[in-house]
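Bump. Still looking for Regulator of MON1-CCZ1 complex N-terminal domain-containing protein structure tokens.
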Amino acid sequence: MSGKASTSKPNIGLSGSDGLSHAYIHYPPLRCNVPGSSGLFYDDGNKLVLSPTVDQVFSWKVSLFDPLIDPTADSISEGPIIAIRYSLDTKVIAIQRSNHEMQFWDRETGATFSHKCRPESESILGFFWTDSQQCDIVLVKTRYG
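Sorry for the wait, here they are.
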């Protein structure tokens, strides 16, 4: 399976802010032709555009975007994807599967680990990788009651 991002002109204007989780696509619009894609996500920590399918995630570096370069592809397990980001060293893929579950995928070994919240007491609102000495990832959660 392959995927390509293409533009109608060879030069695409992408910029962003280190503090924001989005990218600005000036012109021309980015088109993604990945069969079975469940949408586009932006990984702000690594400046990647991600396009997951049922069993793979395709990624493109946006800081040095070249529409003629094929994306990187990683295998992932099936399931819903609310958010997806690579760790800052790109060794692990974190996938938010639901408001109560995170899945971590080791790219080198294929090993997975899941973290689940108790649905009756809290929900995951989002997550971010960090280069802090205290932790590698921050889960933003809410508690009820």
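The CA atoms of residues 5 and 68 lie 8 Å apart.

Edit: fixed formatting.
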